[in-house]
Amino acid sequence: MQVAFIGGGMMAEAILKGLRAGDKVKPKNIVVSDVCSERRQLVCDNYGISVTSDNCQALKNADIVIIAVKPNVLRDVLEELSGRIQVSQLVLSIVAGATLASIRDGLGHQSIVRAMPNTPAQIGEGITVWTSTDEVSEAQKQKACSILKSLGHEYYVPEEKYVDMATAVSGSGPAYVFLVIESLIDAAVHIGLPRSMAEELVLHTMSGSTHLVQQTQKHPAELRNMVTSPGGTTAEGIQELEQGSIRALFTQAIMASYEKAKDLGRGR
C-alpha cells in the first residue's frame, strides 16, 4: 500500500506513527507533502519517509491520498489537486467539517472517505468515526479501516450526518475533558492540596472511572448513585454542579460544536 499525505501536521503524524508502529506500511511507500520545511524535516527524521513541498508530486504512485490540511486552506488545496487524482486512487479526508460533496466537487473525484479522528489518536487511543461515498470499493474500505485502526478504535457510519455529530462529541470532546481535568486540579489546589498530588489524584480518578464504566457496563447514573450516599460529601458536590446547570452547559457546548461543524461544511 502506497500512502501520500497532503499536510504533515499533528493528526497526519499520528497516522504516520500508527502506520509505522504496526509496520503496516514501509517507509519507502510513504510520502508527506507540507508547506512548512520544519515539519517536513521532523517527519523525515522521525519516520524515515520521503517528503516534498509539491502536493502534486506526492500523489504519484499513491493508492491512498490522505488530506490532512487545515479547513481554511482546503479550497486552495482542492483546486491545486483537481483533475490530478487517478480513478483508482482513494482519497481519505480528515479535514474537520469538509463534506464528501465538497471534496468530490473540489477534486472532480468520486472515491472519497471522510473521517473524524480525535487527539488521543496521538497515543493510539483515539476513536475515529468515518463514512464514504458509494464509489469506494470494499477493498478500499478495508484499507481505510486498517489506517484508521492504527489510531485506536474506528466506527463506520452509513450516513454522513453522524460524522458531523461525532465532530462535536468525540472530535471536540477531548477539549471538554481536558477542561474538566484542569478545573478539578485547580479546585483541589484551591482547598490546599499540593499541585503534584492534585494532578495524580484527578488523573487516576478520571481514568479509573472511565475504565469502571467500560468494564462493568453499568449506566453512568447507576455508578454515580453508588458513590452518592444520602446527605454525604458527594451529594453536596453534585447539588452544586446541578445548580450550576452542568448538564445543560455540556448539551449547549455539543450543540454549538455540531452547528459549527455543519457551518464549516457549508463553507462559512
Folded structure, characterized:
Strand 5 (90-93), helix 5 and strand 6 (112-116) form a beta-alpha-beta unit. This protein has an eight-stranded mixed beta sheet with strand order 3-2-1-4-5-6-7-8, sandwiched between helices. It starts with a strand and ends with a helix. It contains twelve helices and eight strands. 33% of the residues are buried. Helix 7 (161-171) crosses helix 12 (246-265) and helix 8 crosses helix 9. With 268 residues, it is of the alpha/beta class. 54% of the residues lie in helices and 13% in strands.
The biggest beta sheet is recorded as: 8 strands, mixed
User: Count the helices. How many?
Assistant: 12
Q: Low-confidence stretches at least 5 residues in length (pLDDT < 50)?
A: none
- Note the beta-strand portion: 5-15%
- What shape does the CA trace take? elongated
Give the helix/strand class: alpha/beta
The value of Rg in angstroms is 21 Å
Give the helices and strands as they follow along the chain: EHEHEHEHEHEEHEHHHHHH
Question: How many β strands by DSSP?
Answer: 8
Helix content: 40-55%
Which sequence of strands runs across the widest sheet?
Answer: 3-2-1-4-5-6-7-8
What would the average pLDDT be, to the nearest integer? Answer: 94
> Distance between termini?
36 Å
